[in-house]
Design a protein that fits this description.
This protein is α+β, with helices and mostly antiparallel strands and 242 residues long. The protein contains 6 helices and 10 strands. The longest helix has 21 residues.
């Protein structure tokens, strides 16, 4: 069984450029779900359009899976990201604009999960280990600072002081080929996945992510915490409980 809930807030931005998706069904005798968050790049005009394009493709993929539910095979996420990237670039060129969006996607079916990701939104896994629950980040931030940290060649202080530290090195709509991070694993009963945009994880203490509340209660609590901190950015979250 999978339970999921979504919440978002606008922050102090003039509009909300985040978009989300969450659906679960029985496919080929297995409980399956497809979930995602997309963060339209606020530094560019009409970023919400790019995020909407991404989620629209995810919606279509789910509709096709449901229509052909005799098979529960993992979808071709590489082809999905490529198609979204091409559509955003084509639209942006026609409008003489620059559009971009992150996309973090989680597919659960049966006893396994698959993640496809680009940008700096995140997917966390909250899992019970012995007598306590721990959190781990399943995605890699595709930003200048994160890449330099992984390379380990520049001192942390210099990275934090660099004006390009939050510049995205991967997203959809900006680069000719999307940089796609993928990973997969097995699920356990009680696992909680949290998909969120950077407006959420930059505004809350990571300890708040570790919760035994229901998905609906968790999502509401996380967004209320962001609002309490009067965040400037949009913040969105999808909470999925196994």
């Amino acid at each position: 069984m999978l339970e999921a809930a979504m919440q978002t807030c606008i922050g102090s931005r003039p509009s909300n450029q985040d978009r989300m998706f969450a659906k679960t069904e029985i496919i080929s005798g297995k409980t399956c779900g497809l979930f995602c968050v997309a963060d339209g790049m606020g530094g560019y005009s009409d970023g919400h359009i790019a995020a909407e394009m991404a989620v629209s493709h995810v919606t279509d993929m789910w509709a096709n899976m449901w229509a052909n539910r005799a098979s529960s095979d993992t979808p071709d996420f590489s082809a999905l990201f490529d198609a979204i990237n091409r559509e955003i670039i084509t639209y942006a060129r026609a409008q003489n604009e620059t559009l971009g969006t992150t996309l973090s996607l989680l597919f659960i079916c049966g006893k396994s999960y698959t993640i496809a990701h680009t940008g700096d939104s995140r997917i966390y896994l909250i899992r019970k280990k012995f007598f306590r629950r721990t959190s781990s980040v399943l995605t890699e931030d595709q930003t200048w600072a994160s890449e330099k940290l992984r390379e380990g060649k520049i001192p942390l202080a210099e990275i934090r002081a660099n004006p390009n530290r939050n510049k995205l090195t991967g997203c959809l709509g900006i680069y000719s080929e999307p940089k796609i991070f993928t990973t997969s694993g097995r699920i356990k009963r009680g696992d909680t996945f949290i998909l969120c945009t950077d407006g959420l994880y930059r505004a809350v203490d990571k300890k708040i992510l570790i919760t035994q509340k229901s998905p609906a209660e968790s999502a509401e609590h996380l967004i209320k915490t962001v609002e309490t901190h009067e965040s400037r950015d949009n913040a969105s979250v999808v909470v999925v409980r196994v």
